[in-house]
Amino acid sequence: MKMNSCTMLRRAAITVFSLIFVWTGAMSLDLPVKKVKGVEYYYYKVKNKETVYGVSKRLGLSRDEIVRYNPSAADGLKKNMMLYFPVADFPGEGTSVADEPEVQIDTIAADSITVPQKSGSVAIMLPFDLDSQEQSRQGKLSVDFYKGVLIAADTLANRPGNVEIKAFDTKGDIETVKKLLATDPFIAKASVIIAPEDENTLKAIADSAAIRGNYVLTLMNVRDSAYLTNPFVIQANIPQLAMYTLAADAIDEDFQGYTPVILRNISGRNEKEPFTAYLKKRFQDKGINQVEIEYDGSLTASALNSLPVNAGEKYVVIPSSGTLAEFNKIAYVLKNWKDKVLATETSTDTPDVAVFGYPDWTAFRGDALDMLQRLEVTVYSRFFDDFEGFDARNIDSDFRRWYGSPMIESVPSQALLGFDAASCIIKNLRANEGTFNPSYPTVYQGIQSVFKFERSGEGFVNTSLYIIKYRPDGRIQSRTI
């Protein structure tokens, strides 16, 4: 029976999606105990030159267990650093505080002893917009995301590991979010909260999580930088400067010996100028000769005539816009120029014209996609949907079978983003007995996303970027860096 999106979500959201099995218990610790804000913690004061490995041997814990409860330990230990372990997770008889009176734990700030939640549950807080008579596009995309989550949960349901998933409609309203944070016990205990794009809502969730120990996964807001100061925020999108750096590294690696050619339409949008400006400065600092060509309206063959093509020259062309309209203004001229360069046989060196472009181009279909392949374009992107790939086709088939309609077209696909995010979280929670550990497993390779979380500031960021190559035979190859 076909079910519309709102009906499906209303039914699913009132039921906790549970993947059932039982966690194993933890060992006891023989350490002093202190109660802080009603919660008892074992604590350990790091000695001079102690390492995580050494402390793990001393306490009989694994390195992952130490880092799980003390995320800052992932960057190494320092003398007098305090490590905390909830007594509830390590049943046994601890030593009284009087045994080590010199440790003044009361003077430590509350957020420094916050430990990650270990409930093995996931709260999805998105603006599903279910109460509106006409659901917004944002609401529809949120529902598509949740549909992808449910497919992932079903796919992994028969594997060992207890994970609970529940969705909450934020209604795009900060007051609704504040009420949910203050009253809902499921959100309070969640190991991971998937937060919406809205900055105010995201901040409210992140501030609460810093006190409670919920990891907040930021998937929709690519610019949020709360991870710099909040140890429980995980930015799932590689930050812009890091993205530019990796994209430039890919140009250095793939196009050694090529002369960069920056194209700029003086009457166009040029919305990618922050990237081209970064490249120009980098090329200049490295002493790499570069060319900038300006044109008005559409690129013409005459604009390229000043570039030598008879001595084995190689060029990598980088436009200042990623829009489809601007691509159409340059693509055919570049293809003709590329053919002209390749036809040059006056040198023993092989000439070439390459094109390096943008994430926006991954959404091209039809003639534009054909031109990407004919030009053998290389692009960088946070996401890669190989829509002809085996895995993507399988998810698309499941989606249509489950919901009676195709995924909403968007970049990135919200349904695939939901599938990848849920798969990553579920596998991580299972690997870490109900606690989310951003550092382990190290890398998750999804259908559309790669998640490799590394510490940046106080929190974590995704450090992976796709480099995608379009081939004339129709293949689309990708690698992550």
Description of the molecule:
The chain has 481 residues and is an alpha/beta fold. Helices cover 33% and strands 19% of the residues. The chain has helices at 5-13, 52-59, 63-69, 137-155, 174-183, 185-189, 199-212, 240-254, 273-285, 324-342, 367-374, 390-403, 414-431; strands spanning 17-19, 33-36, 39-45, 82-86, 121-126, 163-169, 192-195, 215-218, 233-235, 259-265, 291-295, 314-319, 352-357, 378-381, 444-445, 450-451, 453-456, 459-462, 466-470, 476-480. The strands form 4 sheets. Strands 1-6-5-7-8-9-18-17 form an 8-stranded mixed sheet, with helices on both faces. Helix 4 (137-155) crosses helix 13 and helix 10 (324-342) runs parallel beside helix 11.
What are the main properties of this structure?
eight-stranded mixed β-sheet; 481 residues; alpha/beta; 20 strands; seven-stranded mixed β-sheet; globular
Q: What low-confidence regions span 5 or more consecutive residues with pLDDT below 50? A: 10-16, 19-26, 93-111
What is the count of β-strands? Answer: 20
Helix amount? 25-40%
Q: What best-fitting shape do the alpha-carbon axes yield?
A: globular
Q: Main beta sheet, described?
A: 8 strands, mixed
Strand content: 15-25%
Mean pLDDT across residues: 86
Label the structural class: alpha/beta
How is the largest sheet built, in terms of strand order? 1-6-5-7-8-9-18-17
Rg over CA atoms, rounded to whole Å, is: 26 Å
Number of helices: 13
What is the terminal-to-terminal distance? 43 Å
